[in-house]
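Journal club prep — side note

Before the paper discussion, L.F. wants everyone to see what a predicted structure for a comparable chain looks like in token form. Sequence:
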Amino acid sequence: MAIKELKKIKKRDGRIVPFDREKIENAIWKAAQTLGGKDKKMSEELSYKVVEVVKNEVPAGETPTVEQVQDCVEKVLIEGGHARTAKCYILYRQKRAEIRKTKSLLGIEDDLKLSLNAITVLQKRYLMRDENGRVIETPKQMFERVAKAIASAESKFKTPPKERKELEDEFFKMMSNFEFLPNSPTLMNAGTGTNLSLSACFVLPVEDSIEGIFESVKNMAIIQQSGGGTGFNFSPLRPAGDIVKKASGVASGPISFMKVFNMATEIIKQGGKRRGASMSILRVDHPDILDFIVCKETEGALNNFNISVALTDKFMNAVEKNIDFELVNPRYGKPVKRIMARAIWNLIITMAWKNGEPGVIFIDRINKANPTPELGVIEATNPCGEQPLLPYESCNLGSINLGKMIKDEKVDWNKLGYTVRLAIRFLDNVIEMNKFPLKELDVMNGKTRKIGLGIMGFADMLIQLGIPYNSEEGVKTAEKVMKFITDEGRKMSEELGKQRGSFENFKGSVWEKKGYKHMRNATVTTIAPTGTIGVIAGCSQGCEPLFAISYIRNVQETIGSNLVYVDPIFEAKAIMDGIYDDELMKNISMESSIQSIKKIPENIKKVFVTAHDISPEWHVKMQAAFQKYTDNAVSKTVNFPNHATPQDIEGAYWLAYKLGCKGLTVYRDGSRQYQILTTKSSKKDIVSILASSSGGCTTCEI
């Protein structure tokens, strides 16, 4: 005898919960959408048929299980002539079963149906633990914790309790839907009851004395312990061999002290969750510049530092004219040597070709965009170069997932605008709730209140719009989207400034000079690389193109296991076009590009371009497009094939300078033995790729 009415369903963990037909409808609809379906009414009708089949097949008195309901979904789809939708649903179901099995080994309750990669990262770094090291919160609870903590800042501005709760709910929704995520320290530390900082990046001064140097080492250790990155400019230090009167000896120079900072970072585990990272910058006119350029020539040297040369307009002019350039002793500010500018330039190019470092920053251009020049000169950036900061400044970063801002194959400007405004408020609230480990940081933070709202999922957006990354339309889309985000962000900051008060040093700032009456934050936009938060959101990284359709993220050292990624949008498209099978995915996993795979149609190849399909010129053009409408700077890597020449690298540097970029990082594939992203898979890796997808199918699970 069949059951008469479906009221309950048995979950996989044994819990009995209310039955919800709409979950079936949504699952079918998501599967249909993956295949280009547009008839949502059909999904509703099919869901009612599933209910009838379940009622007929489950004996009276029994509660149907999730697996039984899913079996009935497959049956209805197949018998109803929806074979392709059924295939999509079945593939997704198989994949979710494999992922659930792996997740169970991690001991995490996945209450948001996340990818295996996301769960792995959250379990290793983000979720709260008890005193015995056991995870004591779920991903959903993590977002609830963060939303509640950041919304509580509203009480400082007398926001009514009802509105505060509404904002808390909106913050939670925005994060749990992966439309926006804040930087890692905020996710790790907000609402935990600790005094660990919520900021991602800081810049510390380095004074030319033993006392000053080791004060900076101590301060770096305190910051990195809470998960923050640090930036330094070692240019104030006197060069190697210079006089040290107090010790009646000679100076050992900036590079020797960089080794001290590097060793300190090596033994500091940030907040018990991740290794420290720092940026080391030296001005191009420092007498030790040649030694600095080659200080990371040996792979593994200064492994906790990224290094960049601060190039001045004067230097670039000297290179262009092929003339001498003066090196200046910072101890007394006078030239001590003249050297051909091209000699320095060529060494930078050669080392960047050899192993990707040093990068370059165009320091004069950065200072032309300094919103508070009366506070001082910007000399350094955070570890990835996207956040130029004054000494003791910090910045709170967050990124909008542009892949979530598409509706009916068009940009949903209303949703994007709403998300920008909500994210700006969120980031300003982070400043209110922040705990600074140093008094100087707290003081400087109030003076500028810098925030950096950026983007991730840009490549996903372009793919959904059918626009190739390496195209004029792609570049114009970048400009249009980033201009919109910055314009809306400034409007919101202006409103908050009127309501809450402007940043302390608003008077005399560029904003006052431009005629603004209020501005809450000295800067509002920054484009960060979004490494781990991109993994959590299951989207493409920052403003980068897809690295590959399938690749391995080598993070064994930092989180205990490598992450295998398969692009979920490509999977969905392959299923939709009827070309998806294990053999295809195996072939793709061995390549950095799909352009030579004959089975894949040209219309798919056109939009699923990867980093190595894109010429360096297009990489630089895209960075410049985003920089045009970004307050701070843009973190991006210009990828080169292994066969690229030093002249190719030089061309990219000149193009970046002429197009208005604030810096440039290049990487020639295979130029290091160890690299974070790779497509060179072993047979074992291929099995892993086929068994677990990073992003998961777009289909929802019942």
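L.F.'s comment for the group: DSSP finds 27 helices and 25 strands in the chain. Keep this in mind when we get to the figures.
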